[in-house]
Structure formats: C-alpha cells, structure tokens
Amino acid sequence: MLELIASVSFFIGAGYLLRRLGLARAEAATDLNVLVFNVTLPALVFVALHRAELSWSMLLLPAIALVYSVLGTLGAWTTCRALALDRPVYGALIIACAFGNTTFLGYPVVQGFLGEAGLTLAVLYDLIGATVATNTLAVLVAARFGTNHDARAGDSLRRLLLYPPMWALALGLGLHGTQIPAMIEHLAQHVGQATSPLIMCSIGLSLRASTLRQNWRLVSLAVVLRLAVLPALMLAVLYATGLRFDYVQVCVLQAAMPTMFYSLTLALVFGLDKAFAVNAIMASTVLSFATLPLWYLILGLFAR
Fold first, then answer.
1. Pick from 216, 228, 236, 253: most CB atoms within 10 A?
2. Any alpha helices (H) in the chain, and if so which ranges?
3. What are phi and psi of 259, to 5 degrees?
4. What is the pLDDT of residue 236?
5. How buried is 185 (Cβ within 10 angstroms: 0-12 exposed, 13-18 middle, 19+ buried)?
6. Could you say which DSSP state residue 100 is in?
7. What pLDDT shows up at residue 237?
C-alpha cells in the first residue's frame, strides 16, 4: 500500500509542480485527458478484459453500480432538500455527492490495491454501470436543475455510444479467449500501462487553490457524503448480503472515490454552479488521498 501511495503522490505532485513552476500549462491536463480517453485507456480496458477470467457473476458489479448511483442520487436529493438552495447549487451538490471518479482515479487505485483481477472488476463496475449512470441519471439531474435550457441531455447519450473505452470493452469481451497476434497484445499492454501515470499527472495539473471559502459548508457536506457516508453504506449492505469479498472490495473502493471531474463539464454545459463544482472536486480529491488508504485498511478488517 505504501508503494501505491508513494507512486500516486509522485505523479500527482509532479503534475502540480510542473504547473506551479510554469513548466507546463494547466490546459495540458486537457491534452492528457484526450490522450488517455482515446488511446491509453481503451488499450488498458481491452487488455484487462481480453486476458481476464470472466464469469456471469461479474455482471453483479455494474448492476450494483447502477443501483448505487440511483440510491446515492435519491439520498443526496433528500438530504439536501431542506437546505433551500438555489437550483444550480442544488443540482451541483447532488451530482458531487452521488457520482465519483471511478475511471480516472478508480482504475489506478483499485489496480494498485487489488492487482489485475481487481482492475478487471473495476472496469466492469465503471464502464457498464457507473459510466452509463453518469451519462443518463447525472445528465438528467443537471438538465433539471441547470439554467441553460438550450443544452440537450441527448447529446451526452450520443457521446456515450462513441466513447472509445466502451468500444474497447466490447472488443475485449468479443475477442475474449481468442488468440491475437503477440505484437498487438504487447503493444496494447505497453500503451495501457501509460494510463495511470498520465491520469495522475492530469490530476496534479488540475489541482489549484480554489475559493473554498465559497460554499465551504456545502462542500464539506458533499465531501462527507461522498468519501465517508455512501461507501460506509455500500460496505454495510454488501457485507450483510454475503457477496464475494473481492466484489465487495472493488465496489466499496469505487464508492469511496472523490467527486468525478465530469461534474464540472455538466455544470458548464447545463448551467449549474461552477464554483461549487470546482471546490467539491478539488476538496474531495485531495482528501481522498487519505481516505482511500483508510478504506482499504477497513476492508482488511472485514476480510473473511
């Protein structure tokens, strides 16, 4: 675990320092994200699924992710209803609480804690479950509470169908168990290995001292729900059901991820509160460096 924390800290710190020292532009994070989404992440997904030992029971993971997203949204909606918030803040708060960074941070963290087998489960949880929920339920919430009524929820659904990691998921499952040329397999493996360092550098480039004094109470509420309350509920429910413990580990770790970066995109497109979205992302991301290892240790106490 210490090696993982050191690795994550190094690459995130490197990205942050490069921007602070003026050696890299903050906009470089966008360029890295484009490279990850279109090249390295699809390669990582393909290799993880093509090589994995798959079973029908693994479909429980995306099902859990979908149910969790729905219940998390309803829980955040109910919790925040009595606060009499402006609609743009209300919508941004619901999304910040209910939807985590299960791709960018989820993949490298789960892989670091649980290895390749854990990565396969994290991919299934994310792409078939969490990503679908993000591009449907989160978009509907943003459209309902946002001020930009010209934005269309259907645009996000179309982007989901063109999402390169989704095509890699389909290709990995379609070619599972078949022999592919060794050169292609090695190339995909090496390209995929660049995903975690690039993601971490991108996060570091994005971190900045934002105006946390603005809405700090609501940001604190979002962080507590996102990093503590919701993953605790996930652990309690799944452990009580007797679900396979490796499934429980992946689901709880993914549930404990900080607020997704995509929530800022939704805020910009649909007219939610941008400042709150930025603060929730930054605060939950920084604090997750402490809470994620803690959740891994807690899970170890529940190991059967």
1. 253
2. 2-20, 28-35, 41-51, 60-80, 87-98, 106-123, 131-133, 139-145, 153-161, 164-174, 182-193, 195-206, 216-224, 230-241, 245-255, 262-270, 274-301
3. -55, 135
4. 95
5. middle
6. B
7. 94
Compute CA distances 34 → 109, 195, 291, whole Å.
Answer: 20, 11, 28
pLDDT of residue 259 exceeding 90, the answer is yes
Is residue 127 within 8 Å of 45, Cβ to Cβ?
yes
pLDDT for the residue 223:
94
Sign (positive/negative) of CA torsion 70, 227, 120, 247? negative
Class of domain 2-301: mainly alpha
Q: Is 25 left (phi over 0), alpha (psi -120 to 50) or beta?
A: beta
Secondary structure (3-state) at 244: coil
Give the chain's radius of gyration (CA, Å): 19
How many degrees, rounded to 5, is the angle at CA 144 between CA 276 and CA 203? 35
Is the CB of residue 297 less than 8 Å from the CB of residue 229? no
- Distance between CA atoms of 175 and 171, rounded to whole angstroms? 6
> Nearest 5°: phi and psi at 21?
-85, 0
Q: How far apart are CA 266 and CA 105, in angstroms?
A: 19
Q: How confident is the model at residue 45 (pLDDT cuts 50, 70, 90)?
A: confident
**pLDDT at residue 182 is higher than 80:** yes
- Has residue 1 got a pLDDT over 70? no
**CB under 8 Å to 189, separation ≥6 — which residues?**
43, 47
Give Dmax (Cα) for the chain: 60
Question: pLDDT tens for residues 78-95?
Answer: 887 778 788 899 999 999
- 302 contacts 246 by C-beta, under 8 angstroms: no
Q: Where are the domains of the chain?
A: 2-301
